[in-house]
Amino acid sequence: MGLPKRRHSKSRRDKRRANWKLDIPGLVACPQCHEPKLPHRVCKSCGYYKNRTVIKVGEQ
């Protein structure tokens, strides 16, 4: 297996690592309560998913 002949500089190393950042997750509005939620997941504020109640939220 080949080995590097010369050491890579810090700038080359840091350029390679520059794209290791987190992305903001894409949020969509809930069709029931219009709160932001992650797509394809149950809404945390109203408990709806695909126009039906999946979990009861806040009713105690």
TrEMBL record:
Q: Which keywords, in A-to-Z order, does the entry hold?
A: Ribonucleoprotein, Ribosomal protein
Q: Can you name a GO cellular component term?
A: ribosome
Whether ATP-binding counts among this entry's keywords is: no
Q: Does the keyword Cytoplasm apply?
A: no
Annotated TM spans = none
Under the heading Pfam families, the entry gives:
Ribosomal_L32p (PF01783)
What InterPro entries does the entry give? Ribosomal_bL32, Ribosomal_bL32_bact, Ribosomal_zn-bd
Recorded hits in HAMAP family, A to Z, give:
Ribosomal_bL32
Spell out the family assignment given in the record's similarity comment.
Belongs to the bacterial ribosomal protein bL32 family.
Q: Which NCBIfam families match?
A: rpmF_bact
According to UniProt, the name of this protein is Large ribosomal subunit protein bL32
Organism from which the protein derives: Lutispora saccharofermentans
